[in-house]
């Protein structure tokens, strides 16, 4: 069992107006992992991050970071936590170098030109170090936020929607940068609306809805548990009904009997094996087909299906 770097128990946040954003959340984050917190707008993702980073005062519950109670050791623990917020909150007329150095100083760390150079180079910002932030592209501004958060060398890094508003090419580039940070030993928690971001990067995924954690699982296991294989088989001759020899398969007829539709299995390849058995059964039954289209459910579909199931 990997060491927990963050332990949250019974975390609740009710605002003055009576709205409860978090309902008794329990969550453990393991040292050295990338954890993706996935959920729709208003699910409680940013409130959860704010509680750990001191931006939101919890109504109830405990938060332990690096084995110590956050409330009792707030100042020393916060210095070991980095936060990349959704919104750019910095002086647009400052240079990249100045704002990143300033962020390091805010946490009481001595200047370290070599460390700042290392961070800026890792984020492809070194060539922009003397430019004013207002002159940078949206993607580069996002990188400045990450550089600011890394300036005080945090061991735990929160990324709140790190690639929101960034084009697909730059998003993939930033995924690589985030993976490098993990390789250097930083534990990363990211919130995202981009399902492929979680699927591509995260070791584990947590799904939060209406202030409650619905599921926490390794990404691969979640795919295996909830994934589905879908196959559409175009038949050479239409069928009026499904033959008895095919009734053991999860199939239906479509397109006026000209298509056989299969949906079953799991996300670990079990469905593909069953589709192979289905095609053998078709041949044995003398049913000819002209094409097969097979696809696996994405994590996005799993997510939507899970939330629909919870809503019922």
Descriptive tags:
312 residues; alpha/beta; Rossmann fold; Alpha-Beta Plaits; 2 domains; elongated
Structural features, described:
This protein is an alpha/beta fold and 312 residues long. It folds into two domains: 4-224, 3-Layer(aba) Sandwich (Rossmann fold); 228-296, Alpha-Beta Plaits (2-Layer Sandwich). The protein has ten helices and 14 strands. It has a six-stranded mixed beta sheet, sandwiched between helices. Strands 2-1-4-5 form a four-stranded antiparallel beta sheet, with helices on one face. Strands 12-13-11-14 form a four-stranded antiparallel beta sheet, covered by helices on one side. The model has no long low-confidence stretch (mean pLDDT 86).
Give a quick rundown of the structure:
The chain has 312 residues and is an alpha/beta fold. The protein has helices at residues 45-52, 74-78, 96-106, 113-122, 138-150, 168-183, 195-201, 219-226, 270-284, 299-311, and strands spanning 4-14, 20-30, 34-38, 60-65, 68-69, 81-84, 156-160, 187-192, 204-209, 212-218, 229-235, 251-254, 259-264, 289-296. It holds the Pfam family ABC_tran.
């Amino acid at each position: 069992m990997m060491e927990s770097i963050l332990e949250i128990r019974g975390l609740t946040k009710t605002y003055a107006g009576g709205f409860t954003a978090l309902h008794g959340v329990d969550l453990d984050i393991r040292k050295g992992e990338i954890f993706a917190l996935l959920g729709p707008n208003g699910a409680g993702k940013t409130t959860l991050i704010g509680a750990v980073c001191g931006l939101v005062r919890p109504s109830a519950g405990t938060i332990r970071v690096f084995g110590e109670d956050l409330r009792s050791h707030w100042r020393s623990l916060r210095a070991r936590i980095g936060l990349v917020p959704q919104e750019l909150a910095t002086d647009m007329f400052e240079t990249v170098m100045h704002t990143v150095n300033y962020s390091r100083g805010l946490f009481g760390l001595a200047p370290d030109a070599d460390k700042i150079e290392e961070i800026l180079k890792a984020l492809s910002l070194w060539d922009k170090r003397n430019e004013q932030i207002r002159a940078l592209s949206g993607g580069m501004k996002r990188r400045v936020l990450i550089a600011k958060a890394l300036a005080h060398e945090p061991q735990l890094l929160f990324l709140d929607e790190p690639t929101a508003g960034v084009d697909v090419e730059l998003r993939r580039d930033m995924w690589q940068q985030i993976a490098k940070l993990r390789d250097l030993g930083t534990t990363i928690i990211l919130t995202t609306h981009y399902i492929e971001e979680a699927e591509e990067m995260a070791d584990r995924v947590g799904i939060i809805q209406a202030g409650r954690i619905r599921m926490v699982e390794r990404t691969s296991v979640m795919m295996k548990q909830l994934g589905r294989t879908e196959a559409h088989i175009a038949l050479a001759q239409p069928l009026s009904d499904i033959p008895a020899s095919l009734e053991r398969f999860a199939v239906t007829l479509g397109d006026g009997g000209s298509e056989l539709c299969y949906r079953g299995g799991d996300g670990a390849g079990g469905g593909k094996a069953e589709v192979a058995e289905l095609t053998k059964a078709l041949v044995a039954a003398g049913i000819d087909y002209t094409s097969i289209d097979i696809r696996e459910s994405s994590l996005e579909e799993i997510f939507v299906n899970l939330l629909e199931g919870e809503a019922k």
